[in-house]
Amino acid sequence: MGTLEIRELEAFLVLAEELHFGRAGERLFVSQSRVSQLLKSLEARIGAPLVERTSRRVRLTPLGQTFLSSLRPAYEALRATVEETRAAARGTGGVLRIGFQGTIDDQLAGAVALFEERRPACAVEVAEIALSDPFGPVRRQEVDCAVVLLPVAEDDLVLGPVFSRQLRVLALPARHPYASRASLSVEELADVRLIGVRGDAPDYWRHAQAPRRTPDGRPIPAGPLVNTLQEGLSLAAAGRGAMLLCRSSAEYHGSGRSSLAFVPVEGLPGSLLGLVLRRASSSPQARAFAQALAETLTEPPHGLRPSRKDAGSPGTSPLTVTP
Fold first, then answer.
1. Are 195 and 243 within 8 A, CB to CB?
2. Which residue intervals make up region (Disordered) (predicted)?
């Protein structure tokens, strides 16, 4: 097999999330051709293709999917071990690993800055979490805490500060009849095929991101299932369905996409983000970050201590943080 190259594995992991060589290169700070070169080298070591690429799309082969499911946790464990050992060698205050879905907005960035000010000896790492696996990285201890889309109703997790309430937007193909509308009613979702989320997320969470019925009971046709937001937007652009997302994600991911239109949906509950931690073994760093996040929020107080109705999280108690 030859010497295993970590850079090849990193390129594969990022490409598996982006399904686009250009965007993968941007995240890795290398050229698109370099990503292709790294992938070809990895495939040569393995002896079979991991990715199918045409002029129109990029997707994992069945072998690539299997490889990804085994590689991701192993890679995260290796990286965590290296970082923890580096921190111990420096004599620092450890590492705080924060997972997130969507984008890092001003509130989250402000909380990170406040945490770093209070704990300058603690290194902070942020890692994007797949849309299809909102709670897995916390459970597997790949991250210490995670900012995820609500609702959260997991007995082994604690829900901390809730924030970033936003209007939900429908991503549509630019040629769709609704693409030129200023807004849509929630009942008009029954006229589109709604792209959903596959993976390990529980049903209540997946149905919140892609409802199956309108408030009046009209069935919403189910579209294809995806693992990542980028995959969903690519399918929407190709006319395979429409996808719900929050306004900030639409603004961030929709920039430069002439093949998509983003139309606000009226009458649909807004999206909310919440910080989740392990109930039994949350780290002191994670609890300190939850405190910093609560202090930086600009929403009304009920956003800091969500009721079960606000958070959509029966069975999950809010986090009580002590300084």
1. yes
2. 295-323
Q: Which tokens go with 265?
A: 């949906």
C-beta atoms surrounding 266 within 10 Å = 14
Per-position DSSP letters for 149-199, written without gaps between them: ESP---TTEEEEEEEEEE-EEEEEETTSGGGG-S-EEGGGGGGS-EEEE-S
Q: Quote the CA–CA distance of 195 and 317 in Å, as a whole number.
A: 30
Whole-angstrom Cα distance, residue 228 to residue 199? 10
SS3 assignment, position 15: helix
Phi and psi for 97 in degrees, rounded to 5? -105, 120
pLDDT of residue 320: 31
User: Phi and psi (nearest 5°) for 249?
Assistant: -65, -35
The fold of 6-69 is Arc Repressor Mutant, subunit A (1.10.10)
Name the amino acid, one letter, at 236: A
Distance in angstroms (rounded) separating the CA atoms of residues 228 and 102: 10
How far apart CA 83 and CA 181 sit, in angstroms, is: 49
Q: Rounded to the nearest 5°, which phi and psi values hold at 310?
A: -65, -45
Residue 255's pLDDT is 67
Over the chain (323 residues), the average pLDDT of each successive run of 10 is 78 92 88 92 93 89 94 83 64 80 82 92 90 93 94 94 92 95 96 91 93 96 92 93 91 78 94 92 89 78 34 35 29
Q: Please state whether the predicted TM-score (pTM) of the whole model is above 0.70.
A: no
Distance of alpha carbon 264 from alpha carbon 211, whole angstroms: 16
Domain range 168-266, its CATH number among 3.30.750.24, 3.40.140.10, 2.60.120.10, 3.40.190.10: 3.40.190.10
Residue 168 near residue 102, CB atoms below 8 Å:
no
Nearest to 133 by CA among 80, 84, 73, 78: 73
- Find the helix or strand (DSSP H, E) in which 291 lies: helix 284-296
Q: How far apart are CA 136 and CA 107, in angstroms?
A: 24
